[in-house]
Amino acid sequence: MSGRRRTAILISSRGSNMGALLAAAADPAYPAEIALVLSNRADAAGLALAAEAGIDTAVVESRRFGRDRAGFEAAMEEVLGARGIELIALAGFMRVLTEGFTARWSGRMLNIHPSLLPAFPGLDTHARALAAGVRLHGCTVHLVTPGVDEGPIVAQAAVPVLPDDTEDVLAARVLAEEHRLYPDALRWLAAGQLRLEQGRVQLDNAPAPHVGALRNPG
């Protein structure tokens, strides 16, 4: 299908959400074509899964650059440019991106985070949610900006926190929602239905996400 936006998924490990995006993009009517899966680690398990699905893969080893973040990102940019990449979806990509990189991809790069932002940015979100005693937890898809987990919110999905939940049980409940929400958000971005207005995401003519999820604005 012509007109599909060439999209790269960036991973550091197994790329669980990568699998959900690949499954969605297997439909020729889906507006994003997954043209590349790129990892900063050669041992990322998701690379083999992507290759099995017939997706082009690449590795830019971040450790080779040490503290030279700009050098690492320049090497990634070279790979992305060679593949004609238009959009980026981060899926467990464990690198903090510089202001320069995020500026170049402003409005074209998504991330999914396992909490209802702005609550619990950063790591160990499920343990922190349990420790805080919250009754609702979930996931957030947002546009990427220089601040970690601070970008404009595209959509969120909430799950209950049950009295007998462990970290693993809660994480699995949230992950199921991530796998449903992320393909929705990438679809909106690739279809040109997502725009920024005064720092907030607006969605034009986008269908409602699945039950239990809210887009921004709801």
UniProtKB/TrEMBL annotation:
Q: Which UniProt keywords apply?
A: Purine biosynthesis, Transferase
Indicate the residues that form the catalytic site.
Answer: H113 (proton donor)
**Domain Formyl transferase N-terminal, residue spans:** 6-186
Keyword Nucleotidyltransferase appears in the UniProt entry: no
Keyword Transferase in the entry? The reply is yes
Binding, (6R)-10-formyltetrahydrofolate: R67, N111
Tell me a Gene Ontology molecular-function term this record carries. Answer: phosphoribosylglycinamide formyltransferase activity
An example of a Pfam family matching this protein is Formyl_trans_N
Q: Where does N(1)-(5-phospho-beta-D-ribosyl)glycinamide bind?
A: G15, S16, N17
The reaction(s) catalysed by this protein are: N(1)-(5-phospho-beta-D-ribosyl)glycinamide + (6R)-10-formyltetrahydrofolate = N(2)-formyl-N(1)-(5-phospho-beta-D-ribosyl)glycinamide + (6S)-5,6,7,8-tetrahydrofolate + H(+)
Pathway listed for it is: Purine metabolism; IMP biosynthesis via de novo pathway; N(2)-formyl-N(1)-(5-phospho-D-ribosyl)glycinamide from N(1)-(5-phospho-D-ribosyl)glycinamide (10-formyl THF route): step 1/1
Location of site Raises pKa of active site His? Answer: D149
EC numbers on record: 2.1.2.2
- Please state what class of enzyme this protein is: transferase
Similarity comment: family membership = Belongs to the GART family.
Function, in words: Catalyzes the transfer of a formyl group from 10-formyltetrahydrofolate to 5-phospho-ribosyl-glycinamide (GAR), producing 5-phospho-ribosyl-N-formylglycinamide (FGAR) and tetrahydrofolate.
What name does UniProt use for this protein? Phosphoribosylglycinamide formyltransferase
Which organism is this entry from? Teichococcus vastitatis
Q: Which gene holds the coding sequence for this protein?
A: purN
